[in-house]
Amino acid sequence: MSHPPILSLRSVSKSFAVDDTRFHALTDVDLEIAENEIVALIGPSGCGKSTLLRSVAGLEQPDDGSIRIAGQPVTRAGQESAVVFQDHRLLPWLSLRGNVELALEPLGLSATERRRRAAACIDLVGLTQFADSFPRQLSGGMAQRAAIARALVVETRLVLMDEPFGALDSILRSRMQEELLKIWQRHRVSILIVTHDIEEALYLADRVVVMRAQPGHIHEIVPIDLPRPRRRDSAAFSELRGRLLRGLATQDHEVAA
Length: 257
Ligand SMILES: Nc1ncnc2c1ncn2[C@@H]1O[C@H](COP(=O)(O)OP(=O)(O)OP(=O)(O)O)[C@@H](O)[C@H]1O
Prior knowledge:
This protein is α/β, with parallel strands linked by helices and about 260 residues long. The chain contains seven helices and ten strands. A hairpin with a 4-residue loop joins strand 9 (about 205-210) and strand 10.
């Protein structure tokens, strides 16, 4: 990695109290993400993907290890990162513009500057003509684009996405993946994305992190050296899909054993 990493996790462990014992959701996780890199996290249910993402977002406190964004230890929620969840979490009583501007409130900007920045991000996700619409008037894909605008407007260098397109049908999902890449090409940020969908990981990511459960840990990190735009029907894409599927299948077998 030629530049200093935007995100660095060192020996991160996290456990939860369950009844009288501790459940180890993450053990000894080491991971770095470079500027402008897209990294996808895949793995079976319960392997700690969301726990890892929430820890980076400052929403969980690791028991051990360190998490640094741009060299600074993460000590509070929303520090140098913004999160896009599976459900858009837009406030129903605010317009799209109002929701995006609200994210800027803690920054203490003038109303004019808030409006300018919100308008630029709404434009970036192609929703200018819906800026005054309310969440109930937006389709599922539009609402997720609005959530992306709200994450980008705060101008953090790291965007965290937890199954952002998981609730969309497969056609819309593919379209949103293309749109996300276009947005990423225009507005360079680093992205850490949790997904259950191997194809989504392969289509988007520079590297795919394969996690395993019991306890949650990183099993392998697979670089995806395919040029963009990627063709889902290419031989190289299928080969990588097979490799990731085999890794996950082995794991299911091991967990079941
Ligand atoms: N607050 C909590 N209290 C107790 N256990 C928790 C808590 N949060 C997560 N866990 C447990 O930690 C493990 C990892 O959860 P996590 O949600 O990170 O997994 P995941 O890989 O994101 O799963 P999925 O793919 O199903 O969303 C799970 O077994 C879960 O039950």
